[in-house]
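Might I ask for a little of your time on a matter of protein folding? Here, with my thanks, is the record as I have it:
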Amino acid sequence: MKSSWSRLDLLVAGVFALAGLLTFAGSAHAAGKIRAVTTITDLAEFTRAVGGDLVEVNSLATGVEDPHGIPLKPSYIPLLNRADVVVTVGLGLEHAFLPALLDASRNPKILPGKPGYIDCSRNVEVLEVPRSLDKAEGDVHRSATRTSISIPCGRRR
């Protein structure tokens, strides 16, 4: 599948992710790393690339699930409870699973609106906003703004 992200899109997303991570660089654990949890594997790779040795990254998704409905697993709760930041795609991609996980984590640092909640769609101009997302109209991705991201990687680890 060809990525819909241009180099400029990746640069903008990188700046937002870096700004979010650097916010916590000074307040992270004295000898530890910034603990980041991402919703999808592409964001995990991007966070590792941006944060380098300063971050410990875990992804809720493994890469085989439908990113719209990542299953709720009990093992996610302690990850989110100890996280310094959570990195999301945004634009409603995580609406089916993330709110319940954030609530169960009881970690006020990573709630929406807090510095530890990094929404990669923030300040991104959304094009072709649909009037409705009714599945009766067919595949919502064909007519709606793409909320799924695929970051092309030249090489995989």
User: Anything to note?
Assistant: Residues 7-25 form the longest helix (19 residues).
